[in-house]
Design goal:
The complex is a heterodimer of chains A (about 110) and B (about 120). Chain A is mainly beta. Chain A is built from no helices and eleven strands. In chain A, the strands form two sheets. In chain A, strands 2, 4, 5, 9, 10 and 11 form a six-stranded mixed beta sheet that branches. In chain A, strands 1-3-8-7-6 form a five-stranded antiparallel beta sheet, with no helix packed on it. The radius of gyration of chain A is 13 Å and the shape is globular. Chain B is mainly beta. Chain B is about 0% helix and about 55% strand. Chain B contains no helices and eleven strands. In chain B, the strands form two sheets. In chain B, strands 2, 4, 5, 6, 9, 10 and 11 form a seven-stranded mixed beta sheet that branches. Chain B starts with a strand and ends with a strand. Classes of the chains: A mainly beta (about 110), B mainly beta (about 120). At the A-B interface, strand 4, strand 5, strand 9 and strand 10 of A face strand 4, strand 5, strand 9 and strand 10 of B.
């Protein structure tokens, strides 16, 4: 399969809690990106982390990248009901064609 | 920010008909556009890469005669699902990379998607 794995597949939390989603991939990468998708809608780009970076922050989002383990995590702090969506990681392979390979995604539900 | 539109947003057609989906970059020129399909509760699967002025590059397992791609200008790529059947029902999403940027090494901009239902 061209896809990587994400876990958990589904996550249900209460507002105010933190949500952590993990992503693993199979090949060497140029960068890894996280996207959000509300039900039946297009994708919104959240954050991009390059292969030579280990951690990146954007507002309530924190992304880590461990290239030795071929894995990344997305942490959403102080979650809100509006964060309810599906979250996907996507990788761009290094030295190859510039296209995004998406992970399976995590469906996050944040309950008020 | 860069905006990508898709038209139509939703289409229902009879089995055997052909459906054309447009992907437009509204405020930038895109030398490369990508087409994805997404089944319910699943991830996006890359179908093909559309390059302005040249033939599209299809992913393994995607029928090029079934899914015709035309990238005739720097702001428009079209995907035509020929002789559509119920199994082609899916959510089709395009993305675009601004000209001059190395697509994939920087952010791709995604359209809102087109939901195709084949009866």
């Amino acid at each position: 399969s061209q896809q990587g794995e994400e876990d958990p597949q589904a996550l249900s939390i209460q507002e105010g809690e933190n949500a952590t989603m993990n992503c693993s991939y199979k090949t060497s990468i140029n960068n890894l990106q996280w996207y959000r998708q509300n039900s039946g809608r297009g994708l919104v780009h959240l954050i991009l982390i390059r292969s030579n970076e280990r951690e990146k922050h954007s507002g309530r989002l924190r992304v880590t990248l461990d290239t030795s383990k071929k894995s990344s995590s997305l942490l959403i702090t102080a979650s809100r009901a509006a964060d309810t969506a599906s979250y996907f990681c996507a990788t761009v392979r290094s030295g190859g064609y510039n296209k995004l390979i998406f992970g399976a995604g995590t469906r996050l539900a944040v309950h008020p | 920010g860069a905006v990508v539109s898709q038209h139509p947003s939703r289409v229902i057609c009879k089995s055997g008909t052909s459906v054309k989906i447009e992907c437009r970059s509204l405020d930038f020129q895109a030398t490369t556009m990508f087409w994805y399909r997404q089944f319910p509760k699943q991830s996006l699967m890359l179908m093909a890469t559309s390059n302005e002025g040249s033939k599209a590059t299809y992913e393994q397992g995607v029928e090029k005669d079934k899914f015709l791609i035309n990238h005739a200008s720097l702001t428009l790529s079209t995907l035509t699902v020929t002789s559509a059947h119920p199994e082609d029902s899916s959510f089709y999403i395009c993305s675009a990379t601004p000209a001059g940027l190395n697509g994939g090494t920087d952010t791709q901009y995604f359209g809102p998607g087109t939901r195709l239902t084949v009866l």
